Write the C-alpha cells for this entry.
Amino acid sequence: MQANAALHDALAELFALFSSNFFEGTREVPPFTARLVGASIEVTLQAGEGGTTLIRQRGSALYLLAGRLWAEARASEGHGLRCLLPTLTPYPLSFSTQWNNWQNLQQAALPAVGRIALGLDDDAHEEAVLLLRHVLDVDSGYWLELERAVPNGLREEVLAKLPELEQRTSSTSSLGGHLKALASHAGSSDPRERLFVAKHYRATTKHLSNDNHLTFMKNIQPALEGWLKEGDGAVFEAAVGIAEMLGYKLFERSAHAEAEPWLSAALDAGIASAELLRARWECRLYRGDERAAAEDWRAAGPIDDPAQGLSLGFFHRGDRQDRKAMGLARVARALGKLAGGEDPCRDRPKTKKAKAISETERSSLLARARVLAEEAVALVDERARGDEARARAGQGVTDRGFEARIFAARALVREGSGDTAGALDDYRRARTLATAAGLSWQGDLHGEDIRRLERAGKENGGAIPEHFDPEWFLASERGDDERSRAAAVWCAQPWRVVPDARERGTSIPIAFALVKAIVDHSAALWKLGEEDGVTLPDRLELAQRARPLLDRFADRRDADRLESVLDDAHEIAFDILPRHEKAERAAFFAFLQALGGAEAIDEEQVLSALGDDAWSRLRRRLEAKLDELDPLRDVFDAMVHAGAPMEAVVAALAAYQQLVRNDWASFATPRPAWVKLARPIERADGGKLAPALIELIRREQSVPGHYGLARLPAKSLWPLFYAWHPSTEAFLIDVLAGKLDNGKSLSATQRKTRHECLSWFAEEKKLAKLGAALARRGR
C-alpha cells in the first residue's frame, strides 16, 4: 500500500506538470488510483456517477500514459480522442510551438520520473532503466545538471554508455552514414540497444533538411515499422516521435503518398495534434479521398486553441479559415504540377520509364485543382483586400504573407488550363500581396512568372541578349557566327567602368540595384519614416510604378551581379539605419518623396533624384568590389581579347562554370569529365591567354571570401594546363612557395593536394625547375 501511495504521488506530480506545460489554464489532476502490474502501470480513473476507467501502459511510456489520462479526464470537452499528447518529439517542426514546452516538461518531471523508476525497480528493473534512459535522453546527449535526479541505485546502469554503438555513430557524420552504421542493431533483442538506435534515428530525422527525404525514408522504414509494432514502451514512444517528424517533413516536401502512413502512425499512437490532422487532410485531398479528408478537418477543430492562432509557416499566422485556404491552395498547386507532367515532390527520382500522363488524367487533375483553388481564393479574397488596404495605410501585415501563395497557386492552375490572362492577373495580385507583407528576403517572388507569361508568344527574332549571358552563349543551338557577333557586342561594353558623374550612370544597372533594395525593404523603411514623422508616398503604389524598371533588368546577369556586390544599396547610398540621427535620414526620405512625385520611375529619374553624395558612396563601393562583380565574365573577356577561337571560348566558359559550382577542394587533378570540357582551350594562343588567366587568379586571391582571404585551391590552376605557355612555370613556382596563399599555412592534406597538383604539371609539361623545387620541398 505504501509503495502504491508513493507511485500515486509521483504520477500525480507528473500529470500536473504535463497539464501545465501542454494545456491552457489551470487544471486539477482528477482522482485516480495506481498500481504496478509487472512492467506496466495500471491507473484507474474515477469517472462520473461512480464509474471508473482503466488505463494500462508500460512503465517506460509515461508520456503516453499522461496523455491518455488527460484524454479521459477531458472527454466531456468533445475532442473524441483517446490520448491528448501534443507531440512526442523534442525537436521543433515548422508549425510547432510545443517543443519548448516538451523540453520544459522533460526537465521539470525528472524528479517524479525518478521516483516512478524506483517503484518499477523491484519487479521490472529493465523497465526502470529504460524509462530513465528514455526521459533523460542518455543516448542522444542528456543534461548533465539533471544527472542528480537519477536515483543512486540506478545511476550506474542508467548513465552507462554503449561503446560499440557509440563507436559506430562517431565513425560517420552523414545522415545516411548514421542510418547504415546502426541498422544491424535496430532489431536487437536488447531493448537498450533498440532505444539507442531509435534515439539516434530520431536525432538524425531532426536534421533532415536538404537531403533527399524519400531516400531517407526508404533507409529508415524497416527499423521504424518494427519499432512501431512494439505498440508500447520507450522504444515505441521514440518511434512515434520519429513518425511524427518524418511524416510532417515528407508532407512539407509534397510527398503526400509517403507522408500519409507516417502521419497516421503518429496520430493512431495518440499524438493529439491539430496540425498533423490537417497535414493528413491535405494528403487525403491530394489522393481524392474527400470523405476521409473531411473527417480529419473536423477532428482537428476541438484540439485547437483558437486564441493562440494557427501557424501557417514561418512569420505567418491566421485562423482556421486561413489554414483551410492555405491547405486547399497547396493541394491545388500539387495537382496542377502533376497535370503539367511535373512531380510536386522534388525528391522523387525522374526515370525514363515514367508513364506519361494521359489527356483524360490531365483534364481530371486540372478540374480537381480548379475547384480547390477557387475555394481557397474565395476564403481569403476579401481578407486580402483588407490587408492590402492596411498595408497602404502603413500598418504591418507581415503575418498575412501566406495570401500571396494562395493566388499564385490559382495562377499555376489557370496557366495549366490555358487561361494565360487569368494566370497573369493572379500572379500580379500575388506579387502585390507579397510586397504588402514586406518580408525583404523574399524579393520579387512572382516576378519571374509574370515576365515569362508576358513574353509568351513574343518572338525575339533571334536577337542577341543585350548583355553577357553565358547560358545563351553555351546553348547547343548557337553557331560560331552568332557567338562571334555576341562577343563583339559584349566585349565592347564598359561594364568594369564606373562613371564619375551620376548623369552617366545608366551605363550600369545601378538604379535597378538601388530601387530593388528599397522595394524589398519597403515595409521597414516606411515604418522608419512614420517614426520620423515623414509623409511618404503610397508604398504599394510606388512599388507598382517601379516594376517596369525592375522587370527590365531582373533577368539580366549584369544586374543580378551588381546587386549582389551592392547588397542593400540603399544603406550604402544613405545613412538610413535606425541608429543614425533623424536628420541624417532626411536625405533618404527626400529621395523617396522625389520618386513618388516623379512622372515615371526610370533610370534617369532615379539618378537625378539621387544626389552627388549618395552617388559617390555607391561609386566608391562598386569600384572597391569590381573584382567580385563577375569573374566568369572576366574569363570570357580574357578569352576573346586573346583572340581565342569560339570553340575555346565555349570550352573555357563551360569549364570555369564547373569550377565555380563545385568545391573540389580535395582534388589535386581534374576528373575526366572536366578534362573533356576544358581540352579545347588548347586551341587558344597560350602566350596571350596564360598571362591573362594568371592575372585573374591573382585577382581572385585578393578578394575576401566568407572567412577572409583564402588559400589557393588546386582547381584554380587546372585551366593553365590547357592554356599552356612555358612562362607559366615561374608562376607555378610562386604557388609552390605559398605566395598566392595570403600568408596562410596549409594543412597536411592541403600540402599533399598542392604537391600532387604541381607534380602533375611538372611531369606532364616536363618542367625541370618546378620538378627540382618540388624535390627540394619533398626532402
User: Anything to note?
Assistant: The two ends are 82 Å apart (CA to CA). Residues 404 and 433 are 5 Å apart (CA to CA). The chain has 37 helices and five strands. The beta strands are 32-37, 40-46, 52-58, 310-311, 317-318.
